[in-house]
Write a structure and sequence with these properties.
254 residues; six-stranded mixed beta sheet; four-stranded antiparallel beta sheet; 10 strands; globular
């Protein structure tokens, strides 16, 4: 299969500290790769470097090759924006607390605008929510288009972050996701797993790179370990824990 993402001899230095050195790996279409490693080893910094985010005081050398764009480290500012709008990226931190009267509709529309070229109406956003997130036991939505994320719990904010990216960019060739289950309860963790599983199954050309300490994802195809010496392939097949219940043969929790 063709590689969607290829990292070649990547080194990252933040000011005078060498964070990562000589990192190399490939992710092909159809692969869902878990990036594991100890806390503080540089997993999130690696993900951000692929998108050339938080570059102040950071020196990056090597190559970050993405299909259709070439070496990301050589792109100019306009080309980088085009690249970022073409992929799906869920960052680790949710930043809705200071957004005041901003609504869910605004968050989802803004995420989808670079891909679709148009803002979504209230009814379109509600349809999108219903498509991707099951309603609760009394048939109410967890949130709707007019809900205000500033008033959400941490788990609801995380669910919105993942939904706003995955649902609006489900045709992307590359999905990068950092700790998707932060702050999530039992039900929403399973919702997130099902959401990611669905987009992967619907888009066989997508490649996924994900950081997660929670091992509940039945659809992981491969695991790589980030160490002080570089990347190591984990030879043992990924084992999905059953702490969130059992999944069906297609990897969905019911």
């Amino acid at each position: 299969m063709d590689s969607v993402l290829s990292i070649r001899n990547l080194s990252i230095q933040i000011r005078n500290q060498l964070l990562l050195q000589n990192i190399s790996f490939d992710i092909s279409e159809g692969e869902v790769v878990l990036l594991s490693g100890s806390n503080g080893i540089g997993k999130s910094s690696l993900l951000k470097s692929i998108l050339r985010l938080d570059t102040e005081g950071k020196t990056i050398s090597g190559e970050i090759l993405v299909r259709g764009f070439g070496d990301i480290l050589t792109l100019n500012a306009t080309e980088i924006q085009t690249f970022r709008s073409s992929i799906a990226y869920v960052q680790q931190r949710d930043e809705y607390a200071e957004m005041g009267r901003i609504q869910v509709k605004d968050i989802i529309s803004e995420s989808g605008l670079p891909n679709s070229g148009k803002a979504l109406s209230t009814s379109e956003v509600n349809d999108l929510i219903d498509k991707w997130i099951p309603r609760n036991h009394n048939y109410k939505r967890i949130f709707d288009a007019k809900s205000r994320p500033a008033q959400f719990s941490g788990g609801e904010q995380r669910l919105l972050s993942v939904l706003s990216v995955v649902a609006t960019r489900s045709n992307a060739e590359l999905l990068i996701i950092d700790e998707p289950l932060n702050n999530l309860d039992f039900i929403n963790a399973r919702n997130i797993s099902n959401l990611i599983n669905r987009v992967v199954r619907d888009n066989p050309h997508m490649a996924v790179l994900m950081v997660s300490h929670c091992r509940i994802f039945p659809f992981i195809t491969r695991e790589i370990l980030l160490t002080p010496k570089g990347i190591e392939e984990v030879p043992i097949p990924y084992s999905c824990h059953s702490c969130f219940g059992e999944h069906d043969e297609e990897g969905f929790y019911t």
